[in-house]
Design a protein that fits this description.
The complex is a heterodimer of chains A (194) and B (151). Chain A is mostly helical and 194 residues long. Chain A has ten helices and one strand; from the N terminus they run βαααααααααα. Helix content of chain A is 68%, strand content 1%. Chain B has 151 residues and is mainly α. Helix content of chain B is 61%, strand content 4%. Chain B has a two-stranded antiparallel sheet with strand order 2-3. The chains are: A mainly alpha (194), B mainly alpha (151). Chain A binds chain B through residues 3-8, 32, 34, 37-38, 41-42, 45-47, 49-50, 53-54, 60, 63-64, 67-68, 71-72, 75-76, 129, 132, 135-136, 139, 150, 154-156, 182, 185-186, 189, 191, and chain B through 1, 3, 6-7, 9-21, 23-24, 26-28, 30-32, 34-35.
């Protein structure tokens, strides 16, 4: 079971009114101000960690490694941030790419075979469909590629074209993986009882 | 459960999840290490070596030509023409023809050659470095000829 916990409620607007904007903090960070970058970390760690935690199959240790890696890379690449999008969007995308690197390095054909074998070997143990934690567990138990496609499409809101490009697979393969992921999820959540 | 229902419930999973511990100390350590590398990577030293090589080669050419036109004079007592301030010293037996007027040029050309060779070791595929090294060799040979004529 994961040791990660849900985010605390966001502070009120009054509390954040006097805080520096992300863009200011980015400029100071580019100039070498690590305190400014720490503020960015504190502000965005939850969102970055949430994304990589889901993509890593809710593996807390791996998600923490990926979060650290994402922020170190963000620091190294900050001078390439052009302020054309929100910093949080840029950072989130970078973090997702860091999490996908491991998956991307696998040969798609081998990965497909491994996924099929992994899914076939897993006994179907239905979860209680009504609880959020059970849904998270079911997603975590999906084969890595199917899980990545499901998370990127259904949670992160990516298009199949983007997913295909990032994971090095055809659009059709991305759609097939999504269909398969939802089917497996339905089975794990007790659909077979209907 | 329909696809729509699955999507709706998955959307609820979106959102921040705080790590179970503060990851900043580990990140800060890595940032510090990245900000102050103990030794610059070899490729970063290449432009410096190259610039030095080019400058020294050009300087050596000018010195060689200038010295060729100078009359031979006895060095002043207590001074050694084989010492070039800020560059170093070269033994007279390594100076072409043993001519003290050529000591400075010899030192500069040899230094340029050494730097170019070091740069070439770092980047063996750099054809332009080979070209510069050839020019340095040509200048060294010219210096040898001047030394032989003077001797």
């Amino acid at each position: 079971m994961s040791t990660a916990c849900l985010a605390m409620p966001l502070p009120s607007m009054d509390a954040s009114r006097n805080e520096p904007a992300d863009a200011d903090l980015v400029r100071r960070s580019v100039a070498g101000d690590t305190r400014a970058f720490e503020t960015l970390y504190r502000r965005h760690a939850g969102r970055v960690h949430g994304a990589v935690w889901r993509l890593s199959g809710m593996n807390a240790a791996r998600a923490e490694e990926l979060t650290q890696e994402a922020f170190v890379r963000a620091w190294q690449k900050l001078d390439s941030f052009r302020f054309e999008s929100a910093f949080t969007t840029w950072l989130h995308r970078l973090a997702v790419n860091v999490a996908l690197m491991e998956l991307r390095s696998r040969d798609p054909e081998d990965a497909h075979e491994a996924d099929v074998l992994e899914a076939a070997a897993e006994p179907v143990r239905p979860f209680c469909a009504g609880e959020r934690g059970d849904l998270e567990q079911a997603v975590a138990r999906l084969p890595p590629r199917a899980r990545a496609v499901l998370i990127l499409h259904d949670i992160e809101g990516w298009k199949h074209e983007e997913i295909g490009r990032e994971l090095g697979m055809a659009v059709g393969s991305s759609k097939a993986q999504l269909h398969r992921a939802r089917g497996l999820l339905r089975r794990m959540l007790g659909e077979h009882h209907d | 459960m329909t696809d729509f229902e699955i999507q709706r419930r998955l959307r609820d999973l979106r959102g921040p999840v705080e790590p179970s511990r503060d990851l900043w100390p580990g990140i800060a350590t890595r940032l510090t290490a990245a900000a102050a590398p103990a030794v610059a990577p070899p490729r970063r030293r290449l432009p410096l070596a190259l610039a030095a090589g080019v400058t020294l080669t050009a300087l050596a050419g000018v010195l060689a030509i200038a010295l060729q036109r100078q009359p031979v004079e006895r060095p002043l007592a207590g001074t050694d023409p084989a010492i070039l301030p800020g560059v170093g010293r070269v033994p007279l037996d390594q100076v072409p023809g043993g001519d003290p007027r050529l000591a400075g040029a010899t030192l500069v050309i040899d230094s340029a050659q050494a730097q170019l060779e070091a740069a070439l070791e770092q980047q063996p595929e750099a054809v332009f470095l080979v070209g510069l090294l050839n020019r340095t060799h040509a200048q060294r040979m010219k210096l040898e000829r001047i030394g032989a004529q003077a001797g």
